[in-house]
From TrEMBL:
Belongs to the purine/pyrimidine phosphoribosyltransferase family. Its cofactor is Mg(2+). GO terms for cellular component: cytosol. GO terms for molecular function: guanine phosphoribosyltransferase activity; hypoxanthine phosphoribosyltransferase activity; magnesium ion binding; nucleotide binding. This is Hypoxanthine phosphoribosyltransferase. Its main location: cytoplasm. It catalyses: IMP + diphosphate = hypoxanthine + 5-phospho-alpha-D-ribose 1-diphosphate; GMP + diphosphate = guanine + 5-phospho-alpha-D-ribose 1-diphosphate.
Length: 183
């Protein structure tokens, strides 16, 4: 057995590659329907949303544009503080545009809450949020998430863009890490 194989560190697979692809297809179909006849810009939040963006975008059967933002949230350890700094801004002027922010997971919701008001101040036609995963704590934040893949328990998950210390983003499935990884 090759212990360098990243899949071996997953103790519990929550969502397989096939489940993720199927859910993204449903989400894309829903978004397509909601924005019928409109031009749409989807904005991926680096770096976690790279996989979701790539697969969600390819599930669309219509034209869309893609742009990216990178933000950092000052916080202690694994919790974000809500104080956000833009590391890479949009290349697109979004005034008058319909925008869907695409993220991989919402935990406290602080980052997306900040981001939504930031983008709203640029006078877009509309701003909505699509996230693959959402944790229960996010439900307590005043952030209106229109498209959610799945609500998940309050566990730390990795894979499919989600990292632990910058690793595991390249896993095709999403799951929880074996305890030995943390020790
Ligand atoms: P929040 O919604 O708390 O402002 O921030 C969400 C961000 O926290 C995500 O984009 C992600 O980077 C990180 N995060 C939250 N929960 C998890 C998790 O379970 N696993 C991983 N890998 N990152 C998480
Ligand atoms: Mg993210
Ligand atoms: Mg991270």
């Amino acid at each position: 057995m090759d212990s360098a194989h990243v899949e071996h560190d997953l103790v519990n697979v929550l969502f397989t590659e096939a489940q993720i692809q199927a859910r993204l297809k449903e989400m894309a179909a829903q978004i397509e329907q909601d924005y019928e006849g409109e031009e749409l810009l989807i904005v991926g939040i680096l770096r976690g949303a790279v996989m979701v963006m790539a697969d969600l975008a390819r599930s669309f059967t219509r034209h869309l544009e893609m742009d990216w933002m990178a933000v950092t949230s000052y916080g202690s350890g694994t919790k974000s503080s809500g104080v956000v700094r833009i590391l890479k801004d949009l290349d697109t002027d979004i005034s008058g545009r319909h925008v869907v922010i695409v993220d991989e997971i919402i935990d406290t919701g602080l980052t997306l809450s900040w981001l939504t008001s930031n983008l709203t101040s640029r006078n877009p036609a509309s701003v909505e949020i699509a996230t693959l995963l959402r944790k229960p704590e996010a439900l307590q934040m005043p952030v209106d998430v229109k498209y959610v893949g799945w609500d998940i328990p309050n566990e730390f998950v990795v894979g499919y863009g989600l990292d632990y210390r910058e690793k595991y983003r390249n896993l095709r499935d999403i799951g929880t890490l074996a305890p030995h990884v943390y020790s």
